[in-house]
Specification:
The chain is an alpha/beta fold. The protein has one domain: Rossmann fold (3-Layer(aba) Sandwich), CATH 3.40.50. It is built from five helices and five strands. Strands 2-1-3-4-5 form a five-stranded parallel sheet, with helices on both faces. α4 links the parallel β4 and β5. About 35% of the residues are buried.
Length: about 120
């Protein structure tokens, strides 16, 4: 039996965050939601996440800043950045920050699951 992946979902939009946690749970993942990057950092002291899904633009620390911080701390978690922003060059910035995927809202859930599964095999 494959191990269950522990995934954090960081998004300041409560309904989106809750829906994504519930959806991932229905697929057998273990999802924990956080309202901000700061909330995640404060709450994950002893938890080792397999994957972090974070919104790009939030009050306080951005998804890019969080991704760089996790990398600097030596986190093994793969990071998926989600955004509604459409400007060019975001993919390059996401990769440079250490993210493995950048998904633009609205995205198909099967694209998200594919990205999660690819990151789990790293």
């Amino acid at each position: 039996m494959p191990r269950k992946l522990l995934i954090s979902i960081i998004d300041d939009n409560e309904s989106f965050r809750t829906a994504l946690v519930e959806y991932l749970g229905s697929l057998g993942y273990i999802g924990h939601g956080f309202v901000s990057a700061e909330d995640f950092i404060a709450g994950d002291a002893n938890i080792s996440y397999d994957c972090v899904i974070t919104d790009l633009q939030m009050p306080g620390m951005s998804g890019f800043e969080l991704t760089r911080l996790l990398s600097a701390r030596g986190s093994a978690a793969s990071v998926i950045i989600i955004t509604a922003r459409a400007e060019p060059g975001l993919e390059v910035k996401a990769t440079a920050s250490g993210a493995v995927c950048l998904l633009r809202k609205p995205f198909e859930t099967d694209v998200l699951i594919d990205c999660i599964e690819r990151t789990a095999k790293r």
